[in-house]
Write a structure and sequence with these properties.
Number of helices: 2
Radius of gyration: 32 Å
Mean pLDDT: 83
Largest sheet: none
Order of helices and strands: HH
Distance between the termini: 81 Å
Keywords: Coiled coil, Signal
Low-confidence stretches: none
């Protein structure tokens, strides 16, 4: 679902760029005279865009996975440090005074 919205966004962005400048890899299909050639040209453009989006989605997923691994490592480091701090605090704390025993009668 996420990549479908990305695909729509990319196509809108590329459509806006196509009017101002040529997009590398996209053919100009309006020059084709026959409907079959024009359809083939448009399909080629769609295939190019889908491959490009797929590559970008894969690259971004790899970046997200790497970031998640770093986050997991940081969480583990925080837990380790919290444990060490707890042990140090326990060792540094003065021993609790023993309660006085009531006097025997």
């Amino acid at each position: 679902m996420m990549w479908k919205s990305s695909a729509v966004f990319a196509m809108v962005m590329l459509a806006g760029q196509a009017m101002a400048q040529d997009v590398v890899g996209i053919e100009i299909c309006t020059a084709e005279k026959t409907m079959e050639r024009r359809t083939s040209c448009l399909q080629s453009n769609v295939n190019f865009l889908m491959r490009t989006l797929s590559k970008q989605a894969q690259a971004h997923q790899q970046k997200i996975d790497a970031a998640n691994r770093q986050i997991d490592a940081l969480k583990a480091a925080v837990v380790s440090l919290q444990t060490k701090v707890g042990k140090l605090e326990a060792a540094a704390a003065p021993p609790a005074p023993k309660p006085k025993e009531p006097a025997a009668k």
